[in-house]
Design a protein that fits this description.
Number of helices: 13
CATH topology of the largest domain: Triger factor/SurA peptide-binding fold
Order of helices and strands: HHEEHHHHHHEHHHEHEEHE
CATH architecture of the largest domain: Orthogonal Bundle
Number of domains: 2
Structural class: alpha+beta
CATH superfamily of the largest domain: Porin chaperone SurA, peptide-binding domain
Radius of gyration: 23 Å
Distance between the termini: 35 Å
CATH class of the largest domain: Mainly Alpha
Length: 378
């Protein structure tokens, strides 16, 4: 259960604190929010298979069995997900807002089906255990005592949710972890399995090439082109960053992002940064926070994996992937029998599947990156 507490700590932290680290232009799960992934337990699943011949009541976003989720209910749930996972509905692009709405409906539907299965399996989490998890987090992040609790409550109020709703989300995550363990308890991984799987995992287990990167964020392409030309003509990167970058998190340090691998970056940014030579200027590259111009510092070559040295980590990966396959099949069966129906405006583009993507060591996975995303001013 400590892994679930750790995940909750990471996700809740984004709601409580402002960004304190350089915001790296790195990959996030696209349209599918972290909440969608977390509530689906990061497993492939088939759901909503009866939506085409059963309608939901007027004013409803979806229904699971005889339970109806109204549009207001769904909006309220999104506020809680905002507090827990930093979910921010798109505000400018109508197409993205529509996709977000449908993804949120799917997240709620999946979570409701899992709640039903938890009841059937006799899985429950004691109130004291749930509250202890939240109390531990608040104490770690904000300190002990009434003042810390008051600050936490204020944060929740600012994003339109309550402590009771947060506790309900924590309870569900803990119950899902227990279900994952029960469903996958019989999975085993032998040493022979590890040797056979090693070639498939070798690249992931080796140390990737890293580059010491610096970055400048501009508000428009014209400004970015001008800065890129200035730097390629010999301008001092740190000086230019301090005077032109709109990213408050890195500007004072001359745009320093630190050592990063390509896997930690958004694909377009990674391609530019890892195509440039050491000392070279790359960009402009656009992302959601602006136009980025960067420079490559020291390059540290990658190191191939050695079986004996990575055996323990390999076991985690192989064992988790095997358990995830068993869990995915169980999810497909559960959701196929879940009687999920969506209103037309809330039906996901892919109602027969759920988000995927996970990491070892945490049944619920963690969609939250270890450092914040790239940013402009902030």
């Amino acid at each position: 259960m400590s892994s679930i507490k750790a995940a909750l700590g990471r996700t809740l932290g984004r709601a409580v604190h402002a960004v304190r680290h350089p915001r790296v232009p790195r990959a996030w799960p696209g349209r599918v929010t972290a909440a969608v992934v977390a509530l689906a337990v990061l497993a492939g699943a088939a759901g909503g298979v009866w939506w085409w011949n059963q309608r939901v009541p007027d004013g409803a976003a979806l229904a699971v069995g005889d339970r109806v989720v109204t549009v207001a209910d769904l909006d309220e749930r999104v506020q809680t997900l905002r507090a827990l996972y930093g979910v921010q509905p798109p505000t400018e692009d109508p197409a993205k807002l529509e996709a977000f709405r449908r993804d949120a409906a799917k997240a709620v539907a999946v979570s409701m089906v899992l709640e039903d299965r938890a009841t059937e399996m006799g899985v429950g989490v004691a109130d004291a255990k749930v509250r202890a998890t939240l109390d531990q987090y608040v104490a770690q992040q904000l300190g002990p005592g009434p003042a810390a609790r008051k600050e936490f409550t204020t944060v929740l109020g600012n994003v339109g949710t309550s402590e009771d709703k947060v506790l309900a989300e924590i309870r569900q995550q803990m119950a899902i972890g227990d279900m994952f363990k029960k469903v996958t308890d019989d999975v085993t991984t032998t040493d022979d399995d590890l040797r056979a799987a090693f070639p498939q995992y070798a690249e992931r287990l080796g140390a990737p090439e890293t580059r010491d990167l610096r970055n400048i964020v501009l508000t428009n392409q014209a400004a970015a082109d001008k800065v890129a030309a200035q730097l390629r003509a010999g301008g001092d990167f740190a000086q230019v960053a301090r005077t032109t970058s709109v990213d408050n998190a890195t500007r004072d340090s001359g745009g320093a992002l630190g050592k990063l691998s390509s896997q930690q970056l958004q694909p377009a940014y990674a391609q530019a940064a890892f195509s440039a030579p050491q000392g070279g200027i790359y960009g402009p590259v656009q992302n959601q926070f602006g136009w980025n111009v960067g420079q490559v510092g020291a390059v540290t070559p990658g190191v191939p994996a050695n079986f004996d040295q990575v055996k323990d980590k390999l076991r985690q990966l192989v064992d988790f992937d095997r358990r995830l396959a068993v869990w995915s099949e169980w999810m497909r069966t559960s959701l196929a029998d879940g009687d999920v129906r969506y209103a037309d405006d809330y039906r996901p583009a892919d109602p027969d599947s759920a988000p995927t993507g996970a990491g070892p060591g945490l049944p619920g996975g963690s969609a939250t990156p270890s450092v914040p995303p790239a940013g402009g001013g902030g």
